[in-house]
Structures are given as structure tokens and as C-alpha cells.
Amino acid sequence: SLFRGLQFLTTVNDLRSLPNEGLEVAFAGRSNAGKSSAINTLANHTRLAFVSKTPGRTQHINYFDFGQERRLVDLPGYGYAEVPAAVRAHWEKLLGLYLVNRSNLIGLVLIMDSRRPLTQLDCQMLDWFLPTGKPVHCLLTKSDKLSKQDSIKVLREVKKQFAELPQVTVQLFSSLKKQGVEETETIVGQWFAQ
Ligand code: GDP
């Protein structure tokens, strides 16, 4: 299966150093939303993506390889309050430039804590990316922290937000319970197959 073969490829620190070749799917999300945990869970690996104790401290773009010139790009988490505002603004601008201009990018996996989805910065990422016409798949993470009833409710509400946008899909995800892995794999697999 797609994610099981995922391997660390390289780290880059600025947009000029991005690789020229290959197709990529990017993972983006607020710092602490559960992005590293989701990548590790999908890859069935405990420490492939680093779960940082100081979120926002290391602003790197990490590349992972699925094989056959297909990549996963782990974008720096945004919105971490303790990073100086100027540094945050700089990285948010880079994220915007990447999302808008990156031709190797075929789809975005947007990681959001299911207890607070669609924050202002999440919406900013979508405002940048949706005009490209490329697909977005939203993972509502840490769904184990909600009751079954509340998780169904939040899933329905977020889906409703995107009812007019067929390019956006949404699912629940839990790294703790390893729930939602197959659904993500199916969507990302379809992007690469197109
Ligand atoms: P990142 O900053 O987006 O990469 O977030 P991390 O993956 O480092 O996760 C942030 C915190 O949320 C960590 O303390 C994780 O253990 C916790 N976490 C991540 N995913 C889950 C999940 O599915 N369930 C629960 N209960 N906690 C999670």
C-alpha cells in the first residue's frame, strides 16, 4: 500500500531548493494539529515525521518518497503562537507562494484538529490553494477526543462548508486509534493515479 513504503528523502529550508522532478502531495496544518502523528500513522512508522516538543521551532520542509517519483511534502506547521510574529508572517508567505505556484504539487492534505477545524489560517491556506483547482482532502484529526456523536456532527458541518466545492473531501482521522488510514490512502492514491 502507498504509505507503507514511505521513506525520508530530504529537508529543504527555502523555496528555491525544492526538487525539480516528481509529483507531490503536501500535508499542511496548524502547529499541533496532529500532522506528524498522521504521517507516522499512515506510514505505520513510529518516528518517520518528527513529533516536535517545541512546535514551530524548526521551519523546514521535509520531503518523503513514495517511490516512482511520488513525494509527500511535510510543510511547516503554521500559527504557533510562541514564534515571533515576523517569523510567522514570513513562513505564512512562503506557504502561500508554495501553494499557489508549485507545479509539482497535485493535491493538498489539510490537517485540522477535529475540535477546532477551519481556523482563520486554515481558511487562508484554502483561499490560496483552491483557485489552483487542485484537490484538497481534509483530515479532522484526534477524532478519538470526541464522542461518536460529536465527531459525526463535526464531519457533517465541515462537509457542509464545502458542499459547493467537489474538489474538497473530508474525513475523520485518529492516530491514537489508527482510524481513517484506508480512506486517506484511497484519496491520495487516486490523485497520483490521475
Ligand atoms: P503537529 O504539530 O501537527 O505535527 O502535531 P503532532 O503530531 O506533533 O501532535 C500534537 C499533539 O497531539 C501530540 O501531543 C500528539 O500526541 C497529539 N495527537 C496527535 N494525533 C492524535 C490523535 O489522533 N489522538 C490523540 N488523542 N492525540 C493526538
Automatic annotation (TrEMBL):
Keywords: Cell cycle, Cell division, GTP-binding, Magnesium, Metal-binding, Nucleotide-binding, Septation. Residues 21-194 form the EngB-type G domain. Gene3D superfamilies: P-loop containing nucleotide triphosphate hydrolases (3.40.50.300). Its cofactor is Mg(2+). InterPro entries: G_ENGB_dom, GTP-bd, GTP-bd_ribosome_bio_YsxC, P-loop_NTPase. GO terms for molecular function: GTP binding; metal ion binding. GO terms for cellular component: cytosol. GO terms for biological process: division septum assembly. Belongs to the TRAFAC class TrmE-Era-EngA-EngB-Septin-like GTPase superfamily. EngB GTPase family. Necessary for normal cell division and for the maintenance of normal septation. This is Probable GTP-binding protein EngB. It comes from Chitinilyticum piscinae. The gene is engB.
